[in-house]
Amino acid sequence: MEYIIGILVVVIAFILVGVIMRRKVYNSVDKLEQWKVQLMSRQVADELGKVRHLNLTGETEELFESWRNEWDEINDYVFTEVEEFLLDAEEAAEKYKFGKASRTLKTVEQKLYKVEQTIDDIFEEVDRLLHSEQDSREEAEKLHPRISEVRKKVLQNGYQLGKAEVVFEVELDDLQNDMNQYEELTNSGNYTEAQELIHNVKSRLHELDRKVNVFPDLYRMCKHTLPEELDQLQNGVKEMKDDGFRVQHLGVEKEIQTHHETLLAIVEQLNKGIDDGVENQIEQIRSRMIEIYDQLEKEAFDKNFVMQKQPLLDEKVDKANESFAATKENVMAVKENYHLKDEKYEEQYELEKNLDQLSKKATRIKSMITHEEQPYSSIRLDLEEWQKDFEAWEEKQSKFDAHLYNLRKDELNSREQINDLKQKIINVRQKLQKSNLPGIPNYIIDLVNQARDLIEQSNEKVNEQPLDVDEVSRVLEEADKCVARAVEQTNLILEQAEFAEYVIQYANRYRSSYPVLAAKIAEAEDHFRRNDYETALEQASQALEEVEPGALKKIEDQLKLTAS
Amino acid sequence: MKGSEGLIGGAIMNRSEILVSLDIGTSKVKVIIGEVSNDTINVIGVGTAESVGMKKGAIVDIDQTVHAIQNAVDQAERMVDMAIKSVIVSINGDHIALQDCHGVVAVSSETREINQEDVTRVIDASQVMQIPPEREIVDVIPRQFIVDGQDEINDPRGMIGVRLEMQGTLITCGKTNLHNILKCVERAGLQVQDICLQPLAAAEVALSRDEKSLGVGLVNIGAGSTTVSFYIDGNLANTSVIPLGGDNITKDLSIGLKTTTEEAEQIKLEHGHAYLNSAIEDNSFNVTTIGTDDKQTFNQVQIAEIIEARIDEIFQFVLQEFRRMGYPTLPGGYVLTGGLMQVPGIVDLARDVFQTNVRVAIPSHIGVREPQFTVGLGTLQFAYRNAKIQGKDYGVGIEGHQVKQEQTPKSANTKDKPKRKAKEEPVDKEGFMKKIQNYFFD
């Protein structure tokens, strides 16, 4: 039983597997069948029919033939073969020969795939052919008027194109020929070749058109504009040379000559109808000209600068020499009284050397200016450098001076003060001399003499070596006090004398009527004449007050009034 | 203020004699009020004012001069608190001429005693002589009176005699110049009391009696002009004016230092020195260059060179002038005065140039101890002394002043007498007019 069941199960399984496998094969066959029908139904014939409109000669014919052959082959052989294979596969499936069935199906699938590929290729090719035909036709139609247009332009602007005109005409003829060739190609069905030709013609025409447009300008530029500008430049350079500017070092003339030659070469090139790199060259010449102009301008500026600064050179050197001489003197004076460090001597030596160098350099610059060799631009550089050096020197020198001054500060201050005091004492003497006093009291004279002695003493102290600053300032202080006292006393005495005189004069009016007063005033006058102004003032005022109380006050007011 | 305490000069002169002198100089107008007591003069008031209306000692602008006179008078009035009515004017210039004159009269009174009237008549008689129409007699200075042959009489009044003679100096001057000065004084509201010659006035202060009799040259250097006069035998023999003075120095300085005239004047006064050898180099000062703010420094030596050159030139002219007058040597030497004497060193220079004894005369009166007041003060002294001899009495106005009539008709007749004169004038004016009438219709 078990065996039976086992066998049964096996049989049933066998049958089931067979059924399933068969079904699978059938399905595949159906699918492929369907694919085949689909392929067969594609409008290959119609597509090929489109080509029939074209000239079926030459290339087109060949292509058409090949495509038709291919299709015919597919139609005639491949599809039947496929049908057979499919039937074979079905049969094999029924006989449970699944291996063979699947192999057959695979072959069918491959074949169908290939067929599809071919059909697609044919479609594509046809399409391309049709399009190329159409495009070239359209292009050709457009090109014709353009060619004539360009030709017209060439004819019209012939004189502007110079010798290149012939070249262009030849080119145009060439193009025209190509167009004719295109027609021929089209007629002979070589559409692809025709298209290539058209493309070629188009780009050449485009180039030609561009040249026709550009050439007049280039010609004008190279034949007239630039040569004229170059000539102008040359004239300018000549003028500058005549005016004394130094421009030979720039080699402008030679360069201009080269540019002229280049321009000739360019024209030659243009005559051949070629304008490659011309723009570039022109641009180069242009920029060189601008550069040259800049250089010339700079030279002019530099000349101006140099000429302006030239007179300053001497002036500065002279001034520096002078101030340095003063410095040297100062050093000598300082050396006597103070200890100077070695490095300061070195500094002085350095300054002297530098000044010498500066003055030599100034002479060299001046000789450069007079000898017409160096361009002003390089002289200017030298001059500017010189100025910088000079400023540096000045700074150093003033520092050195300041150092010396600081050393001598006390001494110089003392000297200044002595001069000041001297002037003061002179003023006092002047004042006394001008005061119109009948005489100067002895004590004032003594005071003035004392002050003068003290000033002289301090002067001696200042000149002593080595200098004793403390001692000098002590004597100076004393002298200062004495001078101040002299000034004060002098002013006082002058005031007193003036007042006394005025009081006596005022009292004069009472002399005739008051004998007592007259006597006293006479006495006061006597004192006045004997330089005793104080007593004179006292006596006169006393006498006056007795006669006219308040008179003194009145006189004082009056004096103030006249003083103001 | 004017008239608050009293009136000076003119008619009201009761307290004592107070005289006012007016010296119109080129740089300054100077007024001095002096009181005469015991034959000495006490200065009681002084006024000075810058004068711009004069050039080289002559008036070139009346208005300006009037203004300066008024300023100076105001100043002096303020000092004494009184109003000035009339003044003694000093005049100077190259238009002045001196002439010897001689008059003889018989003593008129029965007692044969010579009185004031005789003196007046003899002075009148001396003036009877031909003078050109453009000139006018200013004054007669009696040199000596001779009574019946006895000469060298100073004052014949009270003497007894039959024949009275007078020898003197007649002073004449150009009409226009005099007119200008008097016009200015009157326009300033003042009355002209007397006119006095500057050299005479200056000599009064500057010269001693001995010098005058020995023979002395008086050199008065003012701002605009230099007056030289020669005295011999106690009298003025000749006078002359050189149109150079202190102003020329100022101008030289302003050119030399390139500065303004004002600043140059200031420098001259403050730092000027006339003698190069004694100028002090330390005496330095700053000067503003004209037209800029730049200051330059100069010292006394530098300006002394300029000043010395100019003063030397003036002295050379002085020498030349004395030679021209016929006095190549002066026994009494030279006496210098005038405003320029304020410049130190001038005496040393003068000694160098003149090669003889030279001194500077400066008034010693309190209040006017400056050489510029020599003339003003001298005017007072001279006028006072001269009036005594001539019998003029300022105390009672200007009556009896014969000479005055010669040159005052114009001013006396002018109707525009200053107002303030009016109230004290009537009595005085009548007498004055009568005199004029007498003079013209005699």
From TrEMBL, chain A:
Cell compartment(s), UniProt: Cell membrane
Family membership: Belongs to the EzrA family.
Record's function text: Negative regulator of FtsZ ring formation; modulates the frequency and position of FtsZ ring formation. Inhibits FtsZ ring formation at polar sites. Interacts either with FtsZ or with one of its binding partners to promote depolymerization.
Biological process terms in GO annotation: division septum assembly; septin ring assembly
Protein name: Septation ring formation regulator EzrA
Principal subcellular localisation of the protein: membrane
Membrane topology: Single-pass membrane protein
Pfam families: EzrA
GO cellular component term of the entry, any: plasma membrane
Organism name: Alkalibacillus haloalkaliphilus
